[in-house]
Amino acid sequence: MEKAKAFENDKYSVDKDPCELCHRQSKRLEAIDPQMNIQMRDHKLLTKMPAEQEHAVKCRCNHNCTLDNIANSLQDLRKRTNLGKNTTYKSSGFKEKQPFRVEFKKNPRERVAEVAKKKNSYHNCDSTDHYYNNCPKEKKKVYAI
């Protein structure tokens, strides 16, 4: 009974070494039920993990994989991904732009005119009376490639 309680209470953690956890839990399962087959033992080990890790290990390992393969894939997941880690997103320190709040303080007619001007500007000359093909302004020539 002590081994069963210890098996239930010992959980996967990102901070702990997954190899030690897998071997410790497999020894407990062997002590609880010595006649349990390998696939059943591995299935019980995987179900004790969080859903993300369980799914990732099942995708990486075959149906007939060994305990070492499971432990190695858990270590690989721990090194390469952020699965199971509580990620906190920090701001970059820059002030975020608030484009809409500034525009709403203006007169609505001015705002509509600015949007139309930005929308209909052609060939960098900011005029709306002609199209790109008929622009009277000279195009910039690029000589360096």
Ordered list of secondary-structure elements with their pairings:
Elements: H1 2-9, H2 18-32, H3 38-47, H4 51-60, H5 67-80, H6 99-104, H7 108-119
Helix pairs in contact: 1-2, 2-5, 4-5
Structural class determined from secondary elements: mainly alpha
Uncertain spans, ≥5 residues at pLDDT below 50? none
Strand content: under 5%
Envelope shape? elongated
What does this structure look like?
This protein is mainly α and 145 residues long. The protein has a domain at 2-80. Helices cover 52% and strands 0% of the residues. Helix 1 packs antiparallel against helix 2 and helix 2 runs antiparallel to helix 5 (67-80). The termini are far apart. The model has no long low-confidence stretch (mean pLDDT 74).
Task: Give a short synopsis of this structure.
The protein has 145 residues and is an all-alpha fold.
List the defining traits of the structure above:
mainly alpha; 145 residues; 0% strand; 7 helices
